[in-house]
Amino acid sequence: MSKFYITTPIYYVNARPHIGHAYTTIACDTIARRHRMLGDDTFFLTGTDEHGQKIERAAEAAAKTPQQYADEISSEFRQLWKRMGISNDDFIRTTEERHKKRVQELFRRIRDNGYIYQGTYTGQYCVYDELYVDGAQPGDPCPTCGRITETVHEENYFFKLSAFQDKLLEAYANPDFIRPETRRNEVISFVRSGLRDQSISRSVFSWGIPVPDDPKQVIYVWFDALANYITAIGYGSSHPGAQEAFKKYWPADVQMIGKEIVRFHCVYWPAFLMAANLPLPKAIVAHGWLLFEESKMSKSRGNIVRTETILDVLGADALRYFLLREVVFGQDGSFSFDALVQRYNSDLANGIGNLASRTLTMINRYFRGEVPYPSHAASRRPADDTIAKLAQKTIREFANFFDQFQFSRALETAWALVAAVDKYIVENEPWSLGEKQDEDSRSRLATVLYTSAEALRIVTALAHPVIPDATAKIWMQLGLGDIQKVALKELAWGQLHLGTRLGEVQPVFPRADKSAVERMQQMEDQQRTSVADEVKDTPSPAASTQASTKAQPIAPSVTNVTPDGKITIDDFAKIDLRVGVVKVAERVPKSDKLLRMEVDIGSEVRQVVAGIAEAYAPETLIGRKVVIVANLAPRKLRGLESNGMIVAASLEGSGRPVLAGFLEDVPPGARLK
Ligand SMILES: [Zn+2]
Asked: Which of 269, 202, 155, 230 is nearest to 55 (CA)?
């Protein structure tokens, strides 16, 4: 039995999980499931990355300890994966003891091998990306995210990255090591242009793993995070079982990443491994971004689509199928609710769902629920053999595409078989044959239904890693038991036995009507409103106030934060806070949360839309004095332009907003400073 080890990147706990995270995890889950069906001893790892300055600051802004903050978000990831049926074998958190000790062990080993030394770093650092920006000047923006970098002057530890230039280039000579080729070429040209030693510790904050023998320093968050791929399977442990597991599973067979973290995974990570005399992973595979209406999904742009919305309305299989079928793996893909519902109806409800239901219903009706067998050679037609041959070809092609990470083409191939069988059924009219009692018609009917059921069985087995839920149900309906026991290596035409008793036949993919799109859109709008309202509670440079779903440029950091997380009075003065009087307040139609208000701020009357309808009846607000952020860029909520934001405290737990107000009388327009 061969082993197969696959990893997702571990997700940084600065953001709640969205379908961008789900996409990577689904792709890995699908690969892991297929390898289990192929009989491989499979280990599938995912987890959360929880250290670093960004987390420390975000926690502080949320009035939580970094550990509380990390616990909450990490738990959201675990719950979501559970709900989606993600089949990971372990979930590593970088704040776990097992990880911390083993990272220190790796650090020690590399230091003992002579690749870590002490030095002074003076330069620019992007806290948002936790990234050293070589060659940047004070005030320069980060090349990755556009935020203003911070000047760092620190005594710390350096990794001798420059020693690995040639060895890395040698490793890249293997075309399977970094995929797809565009990413491989980028990495090669980056490394050819020369590598500088990298600072791998920080001393100005404490939320990290202490450097062994020098607890004033913490290990750079990327070193810490990348090490998870080996610490989780036992590297650096003194426990014999863990050492065994590490020996068995390392090197990883596939390490899946998003294209924005290619440099860390394809340059730093292999260099760290080489410095520790460890073998390199067999393949690092980078996928593209999932775009929402042409714009990268990200927390800062507020155009995140939550996975829960899709799970609630269409289920996990729909999302899994859509992402793997619609996105050409490696390239950027586009997500929209319209496309999701369209794909769901055409391929799942009308495709495999309909094939299963019509085939199995007819076997129930004409053969009392037992699979018939084409007994007479005379009852065969060339069309039957065509389906059998196509099915055999589909098994081969599906495997080839899948092994090349071309999920979209693999599924296209399998669904071409679904379409061919549909056409075959229509042309052979089993329902007409079923009306006749003569032996020839019965025999012909048996052949047609056997052929359809056997093709359905093959598509179901192939599609199981992608749509595990529905295929498990179809498998039961086919009377075949537990689909996870299928030996995919032996899958071939003609294995469905005569007399197999069908299970209870039920539709697996009910058709979705137009309201599905509206429902999902509405759930997301409500979510965005509450996210937009949360922004005022987290004055972190990472939090942007953009909440529109339209394409947005990257918001530069609003403030210049000093290394200890404080802002200057000038930064505060940029925020124009005014006293306002509510003149008009009314509910926004079809929204539970939103109120539309007209607020007099002295110089003008502003329209403001706020997510406070659950806490305040509109009529109670008329005449009330409120605090308005008057110079906030306008944004649209449910089609209404909101010009400003009302300041409110957010209650712990319920998140209920409580409006800020005044005990003394103040005129509208007065500035808060
Ligand atoms: Zn950045």
From this structure: 202
Contact in structure between 233 and 249 (CB atoms under 8 Å): yes
For residue 582, being part of any structural domain is answered with yes
Task: Say whether both 8 and 78 belong to one domain.
Answer: yes
**Which residue type does 14 have?**
N
Give 122 Cα–ligand 1 centroid separation in angstroms. Answer: 17
Domain that holds residue 658: 518-672
- Asked if residue 412 and residue 458 are part of one domain, the reply reads yes
Q: Which amino acid is at 137?
A: Q
231 CA from centroid of ligand 1 (Å): 27
Please tell me whether the overall predicted TM-score, pTM, comes out greater than 0.85 for this model.
no
Question: 58 CA to middle of ligand 1, Å?
Answer: 15
Q: Tell me, what CATH number does 611's domain have?
A: 2.40.50.140
Q: What gap in Å lies between CA 142 and CA 144, rounded to an integer?
A: 5
Residue 537 has pLDDT above 90, yes or no: no
Same domain, 300 and 178: yes
If you ran DSSP here, which 8-state letter would residue 593 be given?
A: S
Distance between Cα 556 and ligand 1 center (Å): 10
Distance 157 CA to ligand 1 centre (A): 22
What's the pLDDT at 220?
Answer: 95
CB atoms within 10 A of CB 75: 13
What pLDDT, on the 0 to 100 scale, is given for residue 386? 97
Do 570 and 640 belong to one domain? yes
- Compute, in angstroms, the gap from residue 270 CA to the centroid of ligand 1: 23
Taking residues 168-178, report their average pLDDT: 97
Q: How many domains does the chain have?
A: 3
Asked if residue 112 and residue 25 are part of one domain, the reply reads yes
Instruction: Confirm whether 12 is domain-assigned.
Output: yes
pLDDT score for 37: 97
- Per-residue pLDDT reduced to its tens digit, 591-636: 888 889 999 888 888 889 988 888 888 888 888 899 999 888 888 7
What residues have their beta carbon closer than 5 A to ion ligand 1?
126, 128-129, 142, 144-145
pLDDT at 558 (0 to 100): 31
201-202 sheet: strands from edge to edge: 201-202, 214-219, 210-211
